[in-house]
Amino acid sequence: MADGAVNLTIDGMPVSAPPGTLLIEAAKQAGVLVPHYCYHPGLPVAGLCRMCLVEVEKAPKLQIACATPVAEGMVVHTQSAQAKSARMGVLELLLINHPLDCPICDQAGECELQDFTFQEGRPATRYSPDYAKRFNPVEDFGPDVLYVPNRCILCTRCVRFMEDVTKEPVLNVSERGDRAYIGIHPEARLDHPWAGNVVDLCPVGSLLSKDFLHKARAWELDKTASVCTGCSQGCNVTLDTRDNVVVRVRPRPNLLVNRYFICDHGRMNYRWMNRGDRIEAPLVKRGGGELQAVDWDEALERTAGVLRGAGGRAVTLASPRMSTEALFLARELCAGLDWTGAVQIVMGEEAPLAGVPNLALRPERAPNGTGAELLGYGRDYAAALQAAESAAVVVVLDEPEVTIRTSGALIYLGYGRDYAAALQAAESAAVVVVLDEPEVTIRTSGALIYLGTVLPEGARNADVVLPIANVAEEEGTFVNRDGRVQRYFQAKPAPGMARPAWWVLAELLRTLGRGESLAEAGAAFDRLARSVERFAGLSYASIGAVGAKP
Length: 550
Ligand code: SF4
Ligand code: SF4
Ligand code: FES
Known about the structure:
Layout lengths: L5 E5 L2 E5 L5 H7 L23 E4 L6 E2 L10 E3 L3 H14 L17 H9 L18 E4 L2 E3 L9 H9 L5 E4 L6 E4 L12 H5 L5 E3 L12 E6 L8 E7 L2 E7 L12 H4 L15 E3 L5 E3 L2 H12 L5 E6 L5 H10 L4 E6 L7 E2 L7 E2 L7 H6 L6 H9 L3 E5 L5 E4 L2 E5 L6 H7 L4 E5 L5 E4 L3 E5 L11 E4 L8 E4 L5 E4 L12 H11 L9 H11 L8 H4 L7
Parallel strand pairs: 1-5, 16-17, 16-20, 20-22, 20-23, 21-24, 22-23, 22-25, 23-25, 25-26
Antiparallel strand pairs: 1-2, 3-4, 3-5, 6-7, 7-10, 8-9, 11-12, 12-13, 14-15, 14-26, 18-19, 27-28
Helix pairs in contact: 2-3, 7-12, 8-12, 8-13, 10-11
């Protein structure tokens, strides 16, 4: 037992918890989930649904586990006949007016009302089939939130979130008794930048996301732990995929980064992961100028041939949306050269979540600017562009709407933005590497090597095209603004022969005789941690699911 801890027994299991711990949380230590609706660990306690009633020996009546702190020697029974009967009664009352909507409700399959009714509700109703259930029409609460009052169990999680977490109290409980419903201020909309969290918080299908409406049933979804790419906060998320298409992004709890929440910008930032116009095989230019599909060996050999013998100055222009591993290996590609690296980051407005310290949609709308910085990439993009003018090698990692002129070779991987000046500078480079730019126009009198997810019209004159995976199709790490290294996992397969950028770059290095093949992202990260002091002491395994700081 821990020092200073309170010792008690829950369902016969000894439990030790810090003073002040609520019974509902202490029970989790004993592997017991006490049924509950109004309680949520990220919200102030309300104690109003009475679904968490448990028996505490020597107490005169049942206690609510969400508002009762642990006490020394307490003996708690969550499964006693008295406790179960009381909870069965609570469920019966909640179901009086609840419609039989499960077949058409988005929450079905992940609904706490379904789950607890199945677990300990009455097998059948005692109400007459002629009883007319309460009916209220669906309301449009905001840009992405619908309210279905008939399904509401009035737990007030949504009201408390808006009041205590966003500090924008636009929701309330209107009317009283069996007429009560969740009301919204007549002149307000649920359009706070973090408002979408009410959909996740609602334990039933009363608050729905318009974006996800009727897209999938819960049991059809595969869930993958990932990290939001929307800004430098690095919120932990779950990617929900149906038939290998990302259909929903939800928060994944991480008390050190985003607690239980994500902002609406991050929630909607997934459609690009499903682009269908992808490069599916390595392509090389044949004699007639046509691009022809080849295997990876031939494509890598051709690429290495372009890189061999390059000398002098090298510039890497990188997207801050590339994995730490790809940024590291792209730097390694220029080892031995006079190297300059820079990232260009799109900026926006900050949108804090007032009730949670150190949580905001950050102005830096990219997930890995800090990772790039730790690896030696600077933020003085203009200077890097200038340096590129006299460079022997220019590596561009991920930039859209780019036009690249170079007398050298161009290697392209990634996504992009406004690289006009860099492109001009690249005209005098011997080699240009671009990491994925879908709207790129590239003119070069030298060799052009293109690594990307999609092939822009302007890159169709490339000598070699190497297809890479996007963030939903690979494993890797990002470093958030606080220096926390966080892993994201593969949610769906990459199309055709596309491979993660870290694999492509590692194979290029191997072909150039500068390193071994890497079989997995973890090996790429561990190579990085061994080589870069700022990552010393970290290993891919030790980062785990919630991240770690070097
Ligand atoms: S809408 Fe959902 S979260 Fe809000 S009170 Fe009703 S059941 Fe609870
Ligand atoms: S705050 Fe940033 S990282 Fe978090 S969900 Fe929003 S965009 Fe994504
Ligand atoms: S969860 Fe305890 S009263 Fe609602």
